[in-house]
Automatic annotation (TrEMBL):
GO biological-process terms attached to the record: mitochondrial respiratory chain complex assembly; protein import into mitochondrial intermembrane space
Protein name per its UniProtKB record: MIA40 protein
Tree of life domain: Eukaryota
Gene Ontology CC: one annotated term: mitochondrial intermembrane space
Biased amino acid composition, Acidic residues: 29-38
Domain CHCH: 64-100
């Protein structure tokens, strides 16, 4: 005989072998492709960013979530010739925030750190080039 009991916030359900042998009577409802709350991947059908996508690994909701959203949105909607070159400040703010929480956002190892510095240097170079073009 199956039964259920509550322990604090948890509900414990005991099922018998017979319970598992009985076919399920649950009916599945067809997915609505326009439902923004369904997991549609990173980009929703209307082109917006799906901040609930598991592919983001919780980055949008952590202590640096707002900085992440700002940087990622800037990059996603960037129309610059070098995509995201106009987002250096947002990515820098996100990086500075992440450095305040080393337990949540572990630093890269030595090899990754070198490529990260190379990427940052290239990004700053692109930003400087953009400024030079804008001032001429």
């Amino acid at each position: 005989m199956s039964y259920c009991r509550q322990e604090g916030k948890d509900r414990i359900i005991f099922a018998t072998k017979e319970d598992h042998e009985t076919p399920s009577s649950a009916e599945l409802v067809a997915d609505d492709p326009d439902d923004p709350y369904e997991e549609q991947g990173l980009i929703l059908p209307n082109g917006d960013i799906n901040w609930n996508c598991p592919c983001l690994g919780g980055m949008a909701s952590g202590p640096c979530g707002e900085q992440f959203k700002s940087a990622f949105s800037c990059f996603h909607y960037s129309t610059e010739e070098i995509k995201g070159s106009d987002c250096v400040d947002q990515f820098r703010a996100m990086q500075e925030c992440m450095q305040k929480y080393p337990d949540l956002y572990p630093q890269e190892d030595e090899n990754d750190e070198k490529s990260s510095k190379d990427l940052e240097a290239a990004s700053m170079e692109a930003s400087a080039t953009k400024e030079e073009k804008g001032s001429s």
